[in-house]
């Protein structure tokens, strides 16, 4: 689909606007299930008064690698019930939520523990969406299978007790999720079956996990890289992990820099931060049962 009304457009009510080409080199689409008349059909999606009803449908209207943007309107609610129920499979698109608090657009995963959001094309941005777990032990909320994905300013929560994401963000095997960035997100996932907020099982290069607030019960590690990640960066995260059996807030293999992370949890001091082959600087871990200030971890020797 070619670009339309690229530089300027007449909005409802006759207001004439000029788009910022640097921000919107491609088509702009609107999604909003809370808007009366929202429809996944031809002729919709071009303005916020007549949006599409689902993100998944909007993705299918995008053109790869021309910078299309999908704006998800305040109050939007979308339900994902199967594996790949929301599949971001068009390269170079941005999916940006509008609204904050209870107006933040919400994507709820339910019905099956295989339900997930797939990132199957490169250069995808996901920003300001609220992902809710609505079923027990959902394997992974966002399954990243392509390079250069950025997940920014999103929220991960549980719809109810015993409804959880085992992993909130799952990187790919091998190097398929190079340069994955997870930043400025807020996660509360406190079910004991959880393993990770971010899991990196492969050999991805240039992964960045920074400035996230992560609260929960993660039986392996809140941020974990079982694979040999290359030149990663784990920076400025605030982490609370309620797990106590030799589990950690950060557990990394491969190479990179792990810096300025503030962590606490139920595990013993020696199990707070494990990144023996990474460069470490100014990371702190505190044992919650001790009622003491966090200390440098690993301990200075």
Protein architecture, described:
The chain starts with 7 loop residues before the first strand and ends in a 5-residue tail after the last strand. It has a single domain (67-296), classed as Pectate Lyase C-like. Helices cover 2% and strands 39% of the residues. It is mainly beta and 301 residues long. The protein has one helix at residues 55-60; strands at 8-10, 16-18, 28-31, 69-72, 77-80, 86-88, 94-97, 106-109, 117-119, 125-127, 130-133, 142-144, 150-152, 155-158, 167-170, 181-183, 186-189, 196-199, 208-210, 213-216, 221-235, 238-241, 248-259, 262-265, 273-274, 279-281, 284-287, 295-296. The strands form 3 sheets. It has a 16-stranded parallel sheet that branches. Strands 5-8-11-14-17-20-22-24-27-28 form a 10-stranded mixed sheet, with no helix packed on it. A two-stranded antiparallel sheet has the order 1-2.
Summarize, please:
With 301 residues, the chain is mainly beta. Helices cover 2% and strands 39% of the residues.
Helical amount: under 10%
Number of strands: 28
Gap from first CA to last CA: 61 Å
Give a short account of the largest sheet: 16 strands, parallel
Helix/strand structural class:
mainly beta
Give the CATH architecture.
3 Solenoid
- The radius of gyration is 20 Å
Helix and strand succession? EEEHEEEEEEEEEEEEEEEEEEEEEEEEE
- Number of helical elements: 1
């Amino acid at each position: 689909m070619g670009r339309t009304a690229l530089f300027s457009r007449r909005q409802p009510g006759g207001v004439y606007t000029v788009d910022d080409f640097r921000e919107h080199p491609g088509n702009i689409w609107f999604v909003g299930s809370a808007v009366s008349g929202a429809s996944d059909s031809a002729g919709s999606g071009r303005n916020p008064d007549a949006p599409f009803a689902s993100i998944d449908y909007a993705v299918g209207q995008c053109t790869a690698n021309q910078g299309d943007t999908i704006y998800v309107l305040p109050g939007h609610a979308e339900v994902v019930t199967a594996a790949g129920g929301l599949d971001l499979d068009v390269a170079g698109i941005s999916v940006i939520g509008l609204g904050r608090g209870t107006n933040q657009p919400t994507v709820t995963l339910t019905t099956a523990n295989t339900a997930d959001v797939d990132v199957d094309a490169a250069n995808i941005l996901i920003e300001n969406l609220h992902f809710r777990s609505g079923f027990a032990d959902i394997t992974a909320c966002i399954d990243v299978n392509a390079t250069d994905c950025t997940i920014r300013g999103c929220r991960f929560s549980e719809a109810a007790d015993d409804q959880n994401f085992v992993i909130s963000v799952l990187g790919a095997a091998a190097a398929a999720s190079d340069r994955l960035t997870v930043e400025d997100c807020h996660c509360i996932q406190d079910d004991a079956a959880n393993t990770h907020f971010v899991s990196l099982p492969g050999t991805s290069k240039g992964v960045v996990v920074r400035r996230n607030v992560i609260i929960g019960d993660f039986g392996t590690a809140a941020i974990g890289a079982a694979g040999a990640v290359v030149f990663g960066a784990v920076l400025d995260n605030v982490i609370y992990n309620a797990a106590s059996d030799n589990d950690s807030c950060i557990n990394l293999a491969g190479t990179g820099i792990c810096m300025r992370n503030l962590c606490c949890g139920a595990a013993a001091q020696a199990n707070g931060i494990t990144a023996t082959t990474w460069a470490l600087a100014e990371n702190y871990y505190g044992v919650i049962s001790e009622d003491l200030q966090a200390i440098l971890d690993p301990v200075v020797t």
